[in-house]
Amino acid sequence: MHPLLSRQIRRHLGDMQPLPEAWQGFLEAVSDAYTHGDQDRNLIEHALEEMSQELTTRNEELRRQLEERCCAELALQREKGEQAALIEKLAATQEQLLQSEKLASIGQLAAGVAHEINNPVGYVHANLGSLEKYLVDLFAILDGDAAAVAELPDGHPVRMRLAAERQARDLDYLRQDVPDLLRESREGLARVRKIVQDLREFSHADEGIMAWGDLHQGLDSTLNIVYNELKYKAEVIKEYGELPPVQCNLSQLNQVFMNLLVNASHAIEDRGTITIRTGVRAPGQVFVEIQDTGCGIAPEIQKRIFDPFFTTKPVGKGTGLGLSLSYSIVQRHHGVIELDSHPGQGSTFRICLPVAQSEPAP
Question: Is the peptide bond preceding residue 18 cis, with omega within 30 degrees of 0?
Answer without folding.
Answer: yes
